[in-house]
UniProtKB/TrEMBL annotation:
It catalyses: S-ubiquitinyl-[E2 ubiquitin-conjugating enzyme]-L-cysteine + [acceptor protein]-L-lysine = [E2 ubiquitin-conjugating enzyme]-L-cysteine + N(6)-ubiquitinyl-[acceptor protein]-L-lysine. It comes from Opuntia streptacantha (Prickly pear cactus). Coiled coil: none annotated. GO terms for molecular function: ubiquitin protein ligase activity. This is RING-type E3 ubiquitin transferase. Residues 83-106 have a biased composition (Basic and acidic residues). The keyword ATP-binding does not apply. PANTHER family: KINASE WITH ADENINE NUCLEOTIDE ALPHA HYDROLASES-LIKE DOMAIN-CONTAINING PROTEIN, OS02G0152300 PROTEIN. It comes from the Eukaryota. Transmembrane segments: none annotated. Its EC number is 2.3.2.27.
Length: 156
């Protein structure tokens, strides 16, 4: 009887020991998995940190490139502005010269028309009277500048 009791006690002890061993194995596997997860997480964090560092460096390089482009564009705009101002000044000078020349020409023409009947200027009213208001019966053809009319302006 003692032997049976001893056997039951030993079996119970063995079962408890096996249960403890099984629990310890499960805990060891869980701890190993957690350690692996932590290692993977740390690797991922390092990779993401490196990627962020590279992205930041790339962004800074792009910013520097854009700054250089901006400086070049500003310099080009200033050069274009200066060129435009020089061109405007040249144009104003040319316009003033052309205006002076036109005034001189008009003065010469006025002087000629006052002294010489071949270069006399006529008003539109004088031309309308001479052509009977551009009458079709006085039209004699078409010229490079429009219709040509016969009319009497001066009786010389």
């Amino acid at each position: 009887h003692d032997l049976e009791t001893e056997m039951r006690r030993l079996r119970l002890e063995l079962k408890q020991t096996m249960d403890m061993y099984s629990t310890a194995c499960r805990e060891a596997i869980t701890a190993k998995q957690k350690a692996k997860q932590l290692s993977e997480w740390k690797s991922e964090e390092l990779r993401m940190f490196e990627q962020a560092r590279l992205t930041e460096e790339s962004a800074l390089a792009i910013v520097e490139t854009e700054k250089a482009k901006c400086r070049a564009a500003m310099e080009a705009a200033e050069a274009a502005q200066k060129l435009a101002e020089e061109e405007a000044q040249k144009r104003r000078s040319a316009e003033m010269k052309a205006k002076r020349e036109a005034e001189e020409k008009n003065q010469v023409l006025s002087a000629l028309s006052q002294n010489d009947t071949r270069y006399r200027k006529y008003t539109i009213q004088e031309i309308e009277m001479a052509t009977e208001n551009f009458s079709e019966k006085l039209k004699i053809g078409e010229g490079g500048y429009g219709p040509v009319y016969r009319g009497k302006l001066d009786h010389t």
